[in-house]
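Predict the holo structure. Ligand: NAP.
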Amino acid sequence: MLTDKVALVTGGSRGIGRAIACTLAREGAFVLVNYNGSKERALEVVEQIEKEGGKAEAVGCNVSDFEACGKMIEEAVARHSHIDILVNNAGVTRDGLIMRMSETDYDQVLDTNLKGAFNTIRHLSRQLLKQKSGKIINISSASGILGNAGQANYSASKAGLIGLTKSVARELASRGICVNAVAPGFVDTEMTRAMPEKVREDAVKTIPLGRMGNVEDIAQTVAFLAGKTGDYITGQVFCVDGGLCI
Ligand code: NAP
């Protein structure tokens, strides 16, 4: 159980982040549901959590903005006096072949997916060190392990998150802080629904378990790592991908 724990889930307004927020709240955590563009949907997540008897609040912040992340975390610590769990889930895609990929598409993906995680970790780490405990879970991707044609920017950001995870895990381990990555395969969300139907069908054929993942598959792994069950696990990458990365 996560009773008395405070969790910050970036990109908690939709998809995988929404499921993570709801799952951590069901385990008893107070959840800060971060959003960037989808305020209404973040408020719906808070409403759903409260309906189920949990506690949550919506916090707006573009994770690619270093100063804004500092402000979000400072204000959250002032309100709650601690943050125990950080889930860096916010992510975007701007797919395209390398020959045609624009600098903007490269930068936007790296700024959100990789620098966004740096920004939150950088601002929260001092507080976690003071607390001498904490769990950081970064949502990477099978694409960061295997690479994926048309996703050079996205794969680079997700592979970068694995390096960030392992380095920060080594730095914070002596204070009892665990840092891990979860690498989903193909999960049914708006992100993958934006792919052409044929690409989705072909993708499913490459998954040994023969189906796309659902958001709960990812949320359960995050909850496992966030709880006492994850106390002796750090610096690891958990592929939740139906066998894609075997
Ligand atoms: P999604 O449905 O597109 O949702 C993306 C979430 O990220 C939204 O809540 C969005 O919030 C938030 N976000 C985007 N840019 C942001 C920013 N600058 N600041 C704060 N929040 C931001 O995507 P998803 O499929 O749930 O993916 C969630 C994570 O899992 C991502 O990191 C993704 O790369 C990873 N992943 C997904 C899959 C998959 O198959 N779906 C596979 C592997 C890894 P707003 O709408 O409020 O802007």
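The two ends are 31 Å apart (CA to CA). The chain has one domain: 6-240.
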